[in-house]
Amino acid sequence: MPFKKLHADIKEILESLEITTPTPFQSKSIPVIKSGANVFCTAPENSGKTTTLVLTTLHKLKCQEVGSAPRALVLVENSVKGLALHDEFIKHTKYDALRIYACDDREHIELLKSEIFEGVDVLIATPKTMNKLLLLEGVNTTQLKILSIDDAEFLVEKTAYAALMAITQSIHKCQYVLYSEKMDPILKRFESYFMQYAKTVSIK
Q1: What is the Cα–Cα distance from 17 to 148, expressed in whole angstroms?
Q2: Which residue, 12, 41, 174, 177, is the most exposed by fewest CB within 10 angstroms?
Q3: Sequence ranges of the domains in the chain
């Protein structure tokens, strides 16, 4: 059972939320993501993709804060989705052991920079904001272990696609996990760039 092999803190939270049985998608995807491979995850809505993203990120970071630079980055389509994802992380985090920060695009970039500088474990941002932060040297990517993209269909849009490509060029080495409902040819194209040797987990 995928949940049984997750960090003890996560299992405790899942029990308190009365989540005991993984969805078919979670059963299939969690072991592959935990292996450290780059993964394309495709499944319909309400398959448990977002929860999988949260659980595997927490597991990768061993549910503890370390240093000040982000060790996980989650890219989202917009700030509304980013703030909703932030709430999901908090729901699954024990005693706020990890510092989760969602960039709100409506805030001034200098404010985002100063708040990230205070120390973040999981950073949630749109590709545009993340790219802007990198250009202003407002975020350190040297400690990144995993980069996940939630509902990745938005990357077919040119500016989001270009921003993502710029972001990945500034990351030395990390695991990439991309979640979407369907595999768009544009998403598949990432295999030639940063998703080398990617595995695919698909539920219909």
Answers
A1: 24
A2: 12
A3: 2-202
Bridge partners, residue 179, by sequence:
41
Q: Phi first, then psi: what are they for 168, rounded to 5°?
A: -65, -25
> Whole-angstrom Cα distance, residue 118 to residue 126?
20
Give the number of residues written for the chain: 204
Q: Apex CA 128: angle with CA 200 and CA 174, to 5°?
A: 40
Full pLDDT tens readout for the chain, 204 residues: 568 788 888 888 888 888 888 999 999 999 999 999 999 999 999 999 999 999 999 999 998 899 999 999 999 999 999 999 999 999 988 766 789 999 998 899 999 999 999 999 999 999 999 999 999 999 999 999 999 999 999 999 999 999 999 999 999 889 999 999 999 899 999 999 999 999 999 998
Beta bridge partners, 172, equal: none
Question: For residue 123, how many other CB atoms are within 10 A of its CB?
Answer: 26
* Dist CA 102 CA 194 (whole Å): 24
